[in-house]
Structures are given as C-alpha cells and as structure tokens.
Amino acid sequence: MYARLVRRSLWQRKSRALVALAALTVATTLTAALLNLYFDATRKLRSEFRRYGANLMLTPRAAAGTQLLEAGLAAQLEAEFVPAKLSVAVPYLYAVVEARGESVVLAGTRLESFARLGGFEVEAGRPPAGDAPDAAWVGTVVARRFELKPGDSLLVRYRDAFQALRVEGVLSTGAAEDNQILAELDAVTRLTSSRGLNTILARADGDAAAIEQTAAALAARFPAAAVNPLRQVTEAEFRVVERIRWVLLGTTLVVLVVTGLCVLATMTALAFERRQTIGTMKALGATNLRLSLLFLSEAAALALVASAAGFLGGLALARWVGATLFAAGISLRWTTLPLVLAAALAIALLGTLFPLRLVRRVEPAVILRGE
Amino acid sequence: MFLRILKDSFLRRRRRKILTVAALALGTAVTMATLSVALDIGDKVGRELRSFGANILVRPQADTLPLEIGGVDLRPLSEGSFLAEDDLPKLKRIFWRHHLLSFAPFLQQPAALPGGESAVLVGTWFEKTLALEEGERFVTGVKVLNANWQVEGAWPADSAEPQALAGAALAERHGWKPGDEITLELAGHAAKLRVSGLLGTGGDEDRQIFVPLAWLQAATGRGKVFRQLQISALVSPDDEFSRRKPGSMTPAEFDRWYCTPYVSSIAHQVQEVLPGSRADVVRRVAQAESAILSRVERLLQLVSLAALVGAVLAVLSTMTTTVLERRPEIALMKALGADSFSLGALFLAEAAGLGLLGGALGYGLGLAGAQWIARSIFGATVTANPVLLPLMLGLATAAAVVGTLAPLRTLQRTDPALVLKEK
C-alpha cells in the first residue's frame, strides 16, 4: 500500500516529478564527472612532471677517496631499483677527446635510458637508441662546427686510442649536450680504458617524502656514492602540483555546491505546489508522520534513480573528457559512486525540508477552501 | 497598462521572485568564477613553473667548442668569446620585455685551493637592481632566477667585495662555515674570499663557489664580460604553429609568431637584441612547462564548461517550475481576454528583468569568488576581463528568457476553463 502511494504520487503530475528528476540528474552527472576528473587529473598531471627529467644525482663521494663511481653501479641500480623506485637511471662517463683537430667532450651513456629521460629535441636523424655499438648523436653546436649530418662518420682520439663513430642524429637540449658527442657507454669505456662512471642521473617516483626515502635507500645500498635529490626539481614539483590540485578541487566544489543549491531551489519551488495535496490527505486522516515519511521516500526514490543515471552519465562524460585531454582513458573510480549517491540524497532530502514544514503548518480546511 | 501589470507582477510574490533571482545569480556566479579562473590560470601556473629554473640559455655565437663537464668549462681562459655585460639592459627593450621575469649572467674561472685541489669560481649577479629607462627599476640575479635556492648564512652583495657563496659539498669537505675566510689562487695571484653563505641544491652547484661578477672580472682583469646568460621567461604553451621554423613562415605568420610569447619567439628576440649571441631554448624545462600548462588550461576550460552547463540547466529548471506554478494565473488572464502575444511579452519582460538583476549579482559574486580562489592559492589577484560582464548579463538573461518561454508555450495551449476548474 505504502509503496503504491509513493509510486502513485510520483507518477501523477509526471511533469513535476520529471523536472525534479532532471534537475537532480544534472547535479549527479556533474558530480560524477567532475569527481572522476579531479581524482584522475591530478594523477595524470603528476606524470607530466616526469618531463623535467632527473631529480636525483649520484656522484663519487669525496670522503671515499675515489674520483669515479664503480663501473658496475649502473647495472646494479638498474636491476634493483628500476622500475620499482626509480623510473629511469642514466649513467655518464665523460672524456675530452680530439676530433678533426679540436677538443670536444665525448659523453658515454646508456642511450636507451637517455632517450627515456628526455629533455631533448631531434633536429636531424633518428632519436637516440642503443642498438649499434658505434652509433653517436651530436649536439647542435658540434654538428654546426664540424658540419656533421646523419650518416657521416667521425673519428675521435683519446690519448693513443681511436674510435670510429657513425653520426645517427643531431640533438638540441639548450644545455651542455649541445656541445657534446653522445655515444654508448661501452664504446667510451673501451676507448678510455676507464674503470668507472662520473655521475648517474635518476628519476625517482612519488612525492617529496618518497624521493627522500629512495635517496636514503640508495645511499645505504651504495655507500661509495653521494646521493642527492635535486632540490630545485623536487621542491618546485611538489609546490606546483599542490597548487594545481587546490585550484581543481576548489572550482569543482564550487560548481557542485552551486548546482546543488539551484536544484534545491527547484525542488523547494515544486513542493510549494503541493499544498492542496497535503491538505486533502490530512483531511482524509493522514498523520504528520505518515506524510513526512511519504515525502522522504519520494525524495529517496528520486535520489536513487538520479544517482544511477548521473553516475553512468558522468562516467561516460569523464571518459570522453579523459580521452580528448590526456589521449588515454582515465581510470574510473567506483569510490565516486557513494559520493554521488550521498550528494544526491543530501540535495533531495534537503529539498523535502520545505514540504515537511508545510505538512506541519497546513490546515486542511484553510487550504481546501482555496486560500 | 502593460507597465502597470509588469510592475505589479514584479512586486507581488516576492518570495518566488527572490528564489528565481537567487538561482540566476548563483548560476551566473559559478560560471563567472570558473571562467575567470580558467582565463587566468595560464599566467598563474606559468609563474609557478618558473621555479624550475631558466628556460632560455644565451651563449656567444662565434665561440670555440665549450668543454663542459659537470657544469664546469674546461677551456683555457685565453680561448673563446665573451658577451658584453653592458648590453644586458637592452633585454628589457624587446617586444616581450614584461615576460622576462629574471636573468643572470655567468663567468667561470678555475682556481686552486690550498692543497692543490682545483675549484671553479662562478661570477654572477645575486640580486642586482637595474635602472631602466623611464625610471623603472628591475631586480634580477640568481636569487630571483632560482627562487627556491636555500642558502645557509647570507647572500653575497653584488659589489666588488670579495664575498662568496660556497657549494655545500665543497664546504663540507673543507670544513667551511659562513663567516670563514678562504684563500685561493687564481689567474696567477692569491686572493682572499669571505664565505658569506653555503648553497645546497643537490646538483653541480654544490661543488662550485659563487662570487660577485664585478669582483671576478676585476680579479682576472677581464673587463665587463660574461660567457653565459640564463633567462627565466613567462611563456605560452607550444602548439603546431610554434614548432615551425621561422624561416618557413610568411610575413603575416612570422608577425603572429613574433607577437605570441612562445619560448622560441622570446629566444629569437633575445638573440636579436644581444650582439654576438645565440639564444637556445632549454628543452627539458620548456617541454615540461608547455605540456603541463596546456593540460591545466584545458582542464580548467572543461570545468568552466561543466559549470556553464550545470548553471544553465539548473536555471532552466528553476524557471520552468516558476512558470508551472503560475498556471492558474495564466489561465485567469486568458479567460479575461489576454492574447498569447501580450501574455508572452509580459512574461518575457519579467524574465529579462530578473535575468539582468540575477546576472549582475552573479557577476559580482563570481568575481569575488574568483579573487578569493586566486588569492588563497596563488597569493595573487585575478585580472578582471571586461568582456565578461556583458557576457554574463547576456547569458543570465538568455537563460531566464528561454526558461520562461519554453514552458509558457506549452501552457498557452491548455484550456483556461480546465485549469480554473482544477483549482
């Protein structure tokens, strides 16, 4: 009987119920979409900060008395810490060599890791890769000076040893690499008969605290190396990400609250129309409690339907947005469903406050008389 | 007569009118707030991203090949070219001068510490005030360029005083503390420096000693020169257009590129104005900045769109219910002989009035909201865009009018007798 009452009351005056449902669904759709977007956008934005490159630097510890890091360190780092704690580790071995009668810096590195760290643009040829042992990439200044282009060969001399390199590409970085020749680490190690590395640049994942932890773990594991977080990068990243997150959260909340308020206003206005119905029901013997429960059930029913519709709609919307914005689907969070439901219930129930007040105030005789 | 009915209608049913204006104002306010923030976010986040360091690097054009390892240039000092320090104020004359947030020149000199160990001295500006034309003053230097460099102790002054900022790793090894005096040998003679502070960045700077440029130039007898200039410029994100080579553009396209603050066009302008220089974009910083800026701007635009859609729909539903509420009134007016046109005109005038009022209120509220967001998060104000006021008023009025006319049309078709009998 009760359920029939609720259904009946919603079904009659369909236009009224539909308007309320529509308003509520708009609120829930926006809530679902914006919440999903907020949670995922901050994660996606954080990953964009990877482009800033290294945030950890390993150098030989002066106290240990060595000028170089141990040669095998890079491999150990790669095996034990990548990709769990570090997303990439790039070793460097430098040597000042002679090429075409001039001194130039030759940097030996793992070209594949170097390519992953990024921070360069390929001006000519192909991106750095570790496929050929004598492949080399030159900086724009070097290329201009020696008039090199992809496909040229370059002979470099280190003391008594020679190495023939083939230029595979020209890179521009706006930093030291513009003046250097990059080659595979093994080739440079062989040429210089070196026993070690000058430095290792690495990128640690996570926030500032996680980076400090990773740095401490590395320092403990490799006591001969001085491990330093690059403060400028880590601190700036933390602050900027936090600011962006707050802006997103702030604007999202503002949109949601105001949408909710407008929906509330709609529902309150709709309820005002029902004074006659309330009067009639009271004249027929309905108690205040009965009427209040009726209105609350109506609101709950509306909220449930609107939540379901809104959640699905919001998810679809957020998916589409994620695809256009990040060129990758955003992951959908089922945790937003209870939030959406809570928001819908809150608005719907608040919207019944006015009719509930009416319920108490209305005198059947006065209303039915037509005032 | 029309006006009298209109005025009467406005003054009656105050509560309903207030509710309607409130809905309109809130809807406008949220659209205005998010739109203001979205329009300004590029500037705000762009400035924040400058804390990652310089995005343009300037070096001499006709130079021998720098031998740079770990931030140290190993070339003998007699080799290579330099740039003139006196040319630097010209930077504040380029088209995008207000986007040059800071810059600092660098000159390196190897030195020998007692014990034979070599160290590198880096002469630079710390926090120098440049007096520009028209009485403007511009403060720049490494302290401004790298706003989050932490110094234990004090920054050296930009005079020719022998003060130094020592790198933390170097200081730790030699046991230097702020206030200590160190002796070193450079360019063939001994020099004393007072360590005013220690610098710890985690990078190459930890192994260098920073001194005032003026002192280094005097100590080495070089004249007013430098070898490298780092610039921090506020830029727009890169897009397809900015990636083209300037040489391949038509004159009109070149003007458009020149007049947009892309990092490449600002670098081009810097190179134009500093004689003998070559300005390069620091790829690592510029690429990240561009990607983050464009994503953030797009995100905020989407939030604004969501706000607009939500506001419009909520306003429409509010207006619809208001009109639905007035069915008896409409029926009565029709029964008394009002034709559809005057009825429509009355409601339209009412809606337009409410829309304008709500829109104006919403504009004010929204602007206040945007200012509050900007101030509490970025500590800066939002630049008010004058085109937003007529836009918001127009939107609110349009939403109010459409929200009224649509249900009105449906209601007009009902028979007055039926409605009046219902009551």
Please, could you describe this protein's structure?
The complex is a heterodimer of chains A (371) and B (423). With 371 residues, chain A is of the alpha+beta class. Chain A has helices at residues 2-11, 14-48, 73-81, 111-117, 140-146, 185-192, 208-221, 231-272, 275-283, 288-326, 336-351, 353-361, 364-369, and strands at 56-60, 69-70, 86-99, 102-109, 121-125, 135-139, 153-158, 161-172, 180-184, 196-197, 199-204, 225-229. In chain A, the strands form two sheets. Chain A has a six-stranded mixed beta barrel, surrounded by four helices. The longest helix of chain A has 42 residues, at 231-272. Chain A is rod-shaped and about 115 Å long. With 423 residues, chain B is an alpha+beta fold. Chain B is 49% helix and 19% strand. Chain B has helices at residues 2-11, 14-49, 142-145, 168-174, 213-220, 251-258, 263-273, 283-325, 327-335, 340-378, 388-412, 416-422, and strands at 56-60, 68-69, 72-73, 83-84, 100-112, 118-124, 128-131, 137-140, 151-153, 163-167, 181-186, 189-199, 208-212, 225-226, 228-233, 277-281. In chain B, strands 1, 5, 6, 9, 10, 11, 12, 13, 15 and 16 form a ten-stranded mixed β-sheet that branches. In chain B, helix 2 (14-49) packs antiparallel against helix 11. The relative contact order of chain B is 0.18. The interface between A and B is large, with 84 and 79 residues.
